[in-house]
Amino acid sequence: MARVFSGIQPSGELHIGNYLGAVRRWVELQREHECFFCIVDYHAITQEYKVAAMESQTLDMAIGLLAAGIDPERAVLFVQSHVPEHTELSWVLTTVTPVGELERMTQFKEKAQRQESVLAGLMNYPVLQAADVLLYKATLVPVGEDQVQHIELMREIARKFNARYGAGFFPEPQALVGQARRILGLDGESKMSKSMGNTIGVLEEPESIWQRLRPAKTDPARVTRNDPGNPEVCNIYTLHRYFSDPETQEHVARQCRTAGWGCLDCKKVLADNMARELAPMRERAAELRGKIHEVREILAVGAAKAREVARETMQEVRERLGLLQPIRAEEFTR
Ligand code: AQP
What we know:
Blueprint: E1 3-8, H1 16-29, E2 34-39, H2 41-44, H3 51-68, E3 75-79, H4 85-94, H5 99-103, H6 106-114, H7 120-123, H8 125-134, E4 140-142, H9 148-165, E5 174-176, H10 206-213, H11 235-243, H12 246-257, H13 263-289, H14 292-321
Parallel strand pairs: 1-2, 2-3, 4-5
The structure holds adenosine-5'-tetraphosphate (AQP).
Adenosine-5'-tetraphosphate (AQP) is lined by residues 8-9, 11, 17-18, 21-22, 143-144, 146-147, 180, 182-183, 191-195.
């Protein structure tokens, strides 16, 4: 049974890009593997965020994941900052990670451009990510395409640690990337991402889904209602592929190519199908919102389970590093 680790930032609402690109896979994997799923709050503070909202966003993310089908009986669900070994290992790994590798990460370069002064936490983001996964000696990491480069670096960090401190200590994790590797946002251009505000939330109400889809970008060449469109370059059509049945997809494509439908007609069908598909998750989430204490208990139990593994790995790491071990209280002579 392979061990799986993956994380999600509590930087906003759980959106359909997260769901299709990663979380849907997590739900499948928990049936056959030992899974650790983590709400990575220490990652989320590497970009501008609202301090007063972090607590509720973390709880909302837990509710979203549970509603999406993460089963705490099968998978360990926890919050990163509740297991301090993540940051502890991260420090150790910075000592085997070349700065040049961190500087060439695409995500770092993109985000650094948006920051006035670039902070070390942003650059070290992939090191903390490596610590997240290596702490559990996980071998499979289900993620969207945006994370593949980080997983490659994680493998290199594992190799460097092993070369210096002992062959085979950390396994080299593999990225598991599914078909929905990069869902575009409603702008039709950039990756759907919480921080870009171009998302549709998994738990959104039908009316709100419609309000978000209405102004969304379609085929840019289709200027007027009577222009025929090309579904192959339309993000709305791509979303139909995930939320509409094959017959509807075919019908939608034909109506688009012949200008039988306008873009709003096409979006209306998508909005209805999306709302229907996501309804069970919305209902489960509403239930969970009434049992916040239970959700917090699930996270506490998850953190305790994660810590058992994390403590053991960190102890082994300290021994490999040759650090002085503290003596125990029962060994004191005075
Ligand atoms: N658009 C996407 N398509 C496919 N997969 C995606 N993922 C994220 N966006 C897409 C995958 O979801 C998991 C959680 O990633 P995240 O928390 O970094 O998601 P985000 O929405 O991208 O979050 P932020 O806060 O807005 O972060 P940045 O600014 O870093 O993009 C991952 O497996 C991710 O691949």
